[in-house]
Amino acid sequence: MKKQExxxxxxxxxxxxxxxxxxxxxxxxxxxxxxGNLEKVQKQDPKEIIIINEFNKLNxxxxxxxxxxxxxxxxxxxxxxxNNYYKASEKLVNGLxxxxxxxxxxxxQLIKKGTCFMEISKLEIFExxxxxxxxxxxx
Length: 139
What we know:
Strand content: under 5%
Low-confidence stretches: none
CATH topology: Four Helix Bundle (Hemerythrin (Met), subunit A)
Number of strands: 0
Oligomer: single chain
Structural class: mainly alpha
Largest sheet: none
């Protein structure tokens, strides 16, 4: 059985901020797992590919979160990330179904774009945490 990673709640953090950070962490981790399995998608029957559904679930999960004011900018980046991943999954599956390599190339570009938004969101959250910790230590 895999050990669950504990995410600490910072002293300055409200319960809503903590819950948001935990849930978005899960979304980010799940997106990484899906992206890590893309090689397998190319070998599957296009009718059986569930990648679109998986990214749609993550998108819905992200869109249903209550976003604390502190994290609104991060949420925008994460939303852009998931939207790009979802569009990429659609293009990839359609490209496989129709054997259209141009769609696969477009999917790759959308994945890269989504990953850029993901990295920005990670950097932003680390900066917020660092700033909040510094503010707390000044008191």
